[in-house]
Design a protein that fits this description.
This is GIY-YIG nuclease family protein. This protein has 112 residues and is an alpha+beta fold. Helices cover 45% and strands 17% of the residues. It has a 3-stranded antiparallel beta sheet with strand order 2-1-3, sandwiched between helices. A hairpin with a 5-residue loop joins β1 and β2. The longest helix is centred in the first third of the chain and has 14 residues. The chain is globular and about 35 Å long. 16% of the residues are buried. About 11% of the residues have low confidence.
Length: 112
């Protein structure tokens, strides 16, 4: 049976990008003081994309944006997504405490 090298390449790239060893969760502040939460393997690159209006629809047209906090969120996309979900469930006061370094990520998501 012949194999599709383009498909294999796509699958390999998808698997390799998902298995990156460092995933991060981050918070971006918008001009109306709301906090946007996301995950990435490269915080600087992702924040630049947000500032350029690329990526998350929730941030388009909301400049200027400020990257206010980020932390390591696991070694794969699945772990990072779980942390992102739990962080999004927190009240804004807890997210603000993270930004001010009054609490840690572990303390914030494990206390709920």
């Amino acid at each position: 049976m012949p194999h599709d090298s383009a498909l294999e390449t796509h699958i390999e790239l998808t698997v390799n990008s998902d298995m990156s060893s460092n995933w991060y969760v981050y918070l971006v502040r918008t001009p109306n003081n709301s906090l946007y939460c996301g995950i990435t393997t490269d915080v600087e690159r992702r924040f630049k994309q947000h500032c350029e209006g690329k990526g998350a629809k929730a941030l388009k047209g909301k400049s200027p944006l400020i990257l206010v906090w980020h932390d390591k969120a696991g070694s794969n996309r699945s772990e990072a997504s779980q942390i992102e979900y739990r962080l999004k469930q927190l009240p804004k006061s807890k997210k603000e405490a993270l930004v001010l370094k009054k609490i840690t990520l572990d303390n914030s998501i494990n206390s709920n």
